[in-house]
């Protein structure tokens, strides 16, 4: 997530009744900054991000957690950093990576912040 929004997000989770500290300590919750996920070494690395997704699903399954819920809030600056074509390719590859697991994956986009053509392309790359 956008590093500037992380603390606010954790606060909102706590206000919703989630014991954030315990969830983080037990590995049930991870809230990663873009730099710790999408933008390692200040660049977008599709392979690295896909490996992170798959590793998370495998670790949770091995630990006996019934499922992983992966939620990503995509911001324009993240797509700009990756490049639209590279981002669309990544989103397409996510479909294949997560199809091995029965875990929900949600990519959220504020439609007011993206062009209609990009939004349509995103809808096309995800089958459901």
Explain what this protein looks like in three dimensions.
With 128 residues, the chain is mainly alpha-helical. The protein has helices at 6-15, 20-25, 46-62, 76-82, 84-98, 116-125; strands at 70-74, 105-109. It is built from 6 helices and 2 strands; from the N terminus they run H-H-H-E-H-H-E-H. Strands 1-2 form a two-stranded parallel sheet. The model has no long low-confidence stretch (mean pLDDT 84).
What descriptive keywords fit this protein?
128 residues; mainly alpha; two-stranded parallel ribbon; 6 helices; globular
Detail the topology: elements first, then pairings:
Elements: H1 6-15, H2 20-25, H3 46-62, E1 70-74, H4 76-82, H5 84-98, E2 105-109, H6 116-125
Parallel strand pairs: 1-2
Could you write a compact summary of the structure shown?
The chain is mainly α. The protein contains six helices and two strands.
Radius of gyration: 15 Å
Order of helices and strands: HHHEHHEH
- Helical content class: 40-55%
The overall strand count is 2
Q: In terms of structural class, how would the helical and strand content be classed?
A: mainly alpha
SS summary, helix count: 6
Mean pLDDT: 84
Strand content: 5-15%
Residue windows where pLDDT falls under 50 for at least 5 positions: none
Oligomer: single chain
Principal-axis shape: globular
**Sheet with the most strands: spatial strand order:** 1-2
The biggest beta sheet reads: 2 strands, parallel
C-alpha end-to-end distance: 23 Å
